[in-house]
Amino acid sequence: MLPAGDKSGAGGMNKIVRKRVLIPDRVSEMTIEAPLIASKARPGNFVVLRLTEKGERIPLTIADADPELGHILIVYLIMGKTTALLDTLDEGDSILDLCGPLGRPTRIKKQGTVVCVGGGTGIAAMHHIAKGNFKAGNRVVSVIGARSRDLLLFKPELEKISHSVLVSTDDGSLGHKGMVTEVLEKYLQNDPEVREVIGVGPVPMMRAVAKVTEPFGVRTLVSLNSIMVDGIGMCGSCRVTVDGKNVFACVEGPEFEASKVDFDELMKRLNAFKSQEQKSMELFKQRKLS
Ligand code: NAD
Ligand code: FES
Question: Which of 248, 252, 266, 270 to mutate to test the pocket of ligand 2 (most atoms within 8 A of CB)?
Fold first, then answer.
């Protein structure tokens, strides 16, 4: 049986109630009417969506949920055909299938200082986790990084739920000039009270987070963005190796202990369909132009 989900746009379900462009032609957010999912969504959960009967299924982290209004928030980076197609939808349109909440939620307990690290689009996914930690009474330090200040997401939102927000940009246009992990390392050197670090972002960033925290011995989790199809443990496409064992990120994750993840393998598997993805995107663009 499928987990609780809001199926089919036909009855007004999965209606896009708000769309906001965060970075033009790159990243947007959608607030979607999905009362069942919103009532059950916890930080760390994701949804799998499908836009057409024969369309690809893609996972997207739930960036926020409002059970009272029955809304969930998704943030997407336009990186392939399906996200480009998603971006053609607007307020008032509906998403054909939305399945969720999926994945194990983040294990949040009151424990003191938690450092939430977000890189690029991963900052949006990290936001829900930071919010959950803040609500649990933890001292939340958000460390966020992007290539430049125009690409930095969710800073105002994180300021509302963090005790401090530390920023890096690759080009130095805001905050520390350099990688987000350099800010993390400096923070850990100055605060011995950190109980947990959680990193969400591109794979090289998550690997670097694991490396930085190791000498400090602080519990570190990363949220893995492996390729997913069904999202419920049946197809095997999200397989990752953690602590030498095969695990399915959709049902056993997406969060895992950072030091135990085989990041090289994850990277290879993420690139496995690169040429098909590029071809599909080119065809989509041609059809859009013709
Ligand atoms: P990006 O490549 O612009 O990187 C964002 C920031 O991450 C950089 O500014 C830097 O501070 C840090 N970073 C990147 N590489 C690093 C390295 N080698 N060492 C240390 N820090 C590093 O990010 P983007 O283009 O916005 O990211 C998109 C990627 O993030 C996509 O591949 C997407 O799949 C992934 N993503 C992952 C999740 C998740 O759940 N893990 C969620 C959303 C997006
Ligand atoms: Fe199919 Fe995880 S997405 S098993």
Answer: 248
Q: Is 231 in the pocket of ligand 2 (CB under 6 A)?
A: yes
User: How many Å apart are CA 142 and CA 155, to the nearest integer?
Assistant: 9
Task: Tell me the CA–centroid distance for residue 204 and ligand 1, in Å.
Answer: 7
Whether residue 138 sits in one domain with residue 171? yes
Kindly identify the ligand whose nearest atom is closest to the C-alpha of 225. Answer: 1
pTM across the whole model: 0.90
Residues 38 and 81 in one domain: yes
Tell me, yes or no, whether 250 and 126 share the same domain: yes
| Residue 281 domain-assigned (yes or no) | no
Q: Does residue 118 sit in the same domain as residue 262? A: yes
Q: Say how far apart CA 145 and CA 166 lie, in whole Å.
A: 9
The count of domains in the chain is: 2
Asked whether residue 30 is domain-assigned, the answer is yes
- Burial label for 272, CB within 10 Å (0-12, 13-18, 19+), is exposed
Q: Provide Rg for the chain, Cα atoms.
A: 18
Whether 208 and 248 map to the same domain: the answer is yes
CA 172 distance to own-chain centroid: 24
In this structure, is residue 7 part of a structural domain? no
| Residue pLDDT tens, the chain, 290 long | 334 445 433 344 799 999 999 999 999 999 999 999 999 999 999 999 999 988 889 999 999 999 999 999 999 999 888 999 999 999 999 999 999 999 999 999 999 999 999 999 999 999 999 999 999 999 999 999 999 999 999 999 999 999 999 999 999 999 999 999 999 999 999 999 999 999 999 999 999 999 999 999 999 999 998 888 888 999 999 999 999 999 999 999 999 999 999 999 999 887 767 777 777 777 777 776 55
